[in-house]
Amino acid sequence: MKTTNNDEIGDLYGILEKPNIREVQFGLDKRFRTWYGITVYFANDRKSLGYKFKHSGTSERNPEPNGDYFWLDTLLVCEYCFKYYDETDEFIAHERCCRYKRRPPGRIKYLSPEYSIRKVKGTKHELFCQCLCLFTKLFLDNKSVYFRMTGYEFYILYETNSNKPLGFFSKDQYSYNRNNLACILVFPPYQRRNLGTLLIDFSYRLSKNDGIISGPELPLSPFGLIGYLKFWSFSIAWHITEGDLSDRHKISLNTISEVTGIRVADVLTVLKHMQCLTENDEILLPVVRRWAKDHNVERGFMLKEQYLVLND
């Protein structure tokens, strides 16, 4: 088996060890620093963005106090379609007439008074999905696909009264392990609002609608693991204290998996995290119920079923 070193992986996915774009102008009113570096936005000369088919001449790079240099000071990104620019005039002209400013792509799969989730197929909206994935790579340390969209579906989260995306997750339609989620990101301006939990919950609703027990693509990133531990623990605790398992005096891992739709291995992981297992992997239900009380577990953290629109 051929071994791939880190340099080869970096070349393949455009990964850099440090950010090479200082910050992102997201729409007309949001600006924030990037977290990770990628090369795929740029042409080979590293002086112009890749969507431009001619060199823009020499470009002066801006040094940081620690001696690092950025390839680009500010990347201008449309907050409706994720198209990117380095010229302000081009960016503003696009923002005025972006087709998705009036109507987002895809079909609504969840619609509540607060939020909506739209399903966007990579086969139908390839450029939108490519630009979304490129933007995502600035904020995720694990590699994500950006050039082959036909096998993926994207579920984009919006506020119901707005056409500005808040975050998304992608799903590989041909996953060998039938994973329900490949990549997830809540965009920096909208983090710390429990939107990641909402998206994870919806991914499990899709699996249950298909009649399968599933979970995310592994391995999880450190931030991804934190998000999933929160969702798994709250979901299991709620079902044991208030839901379908609340009248049980003894419960198996398989039963929890069947009711929650969470894979047995993930159920085991989170129960160990909650310290609710004996050495023989028996579930300590009083400990689970006490954990739920201590953490104020309520139904409110989950999607409201009456607003699901899963059927095409």
Automatic annotation (TrEMBL):
Provide the coiled-coil residue spans: none
Instruction: Please state what class of enzyme this protein is.
Output: transferase
GO BP term, example = regulation of DNA-templated transcription
The record places domain MYST-type HAT at: 16-293
Any one GO MF term held by the record is: histone H4K16 acetyltransferase activity
GO cellular component labels: chromosome, telomeric region; NuA4 histone acetyltransferase complex; nucleus; SAS acetyltransferase complex
Q: Which residues form the active site?
A: E217
Concerning Pfam families, the annotation shows:
MOZ_SAS (PF01853)
Nucleus as a keyword of this entry, yes or no, is yes
E.C. numbers: 2.3.1.48
List the InterPro entries hit by this protein, alphabetically. Answer: Acyl_CoA_acyltransferase, HAT_MYST-type, MYST_HAT, WH-like_DNA-bd_sf
Alphabetically sorted, this entry's keywords are: Acetylation, Acyltransferase, Metal-binding, Nucleus, Transcription, Transcription regulation, Transferase, Zinc, Zinc-finger
Name of the protein described by the UniProt record: histone acetyltransferase
Organism in which the protein naturally occurs: Eremothecium cymbalariae (strain CBS 270.75 / DBVPG 7215 / KCTC 17166 / NRRL Y-17582)
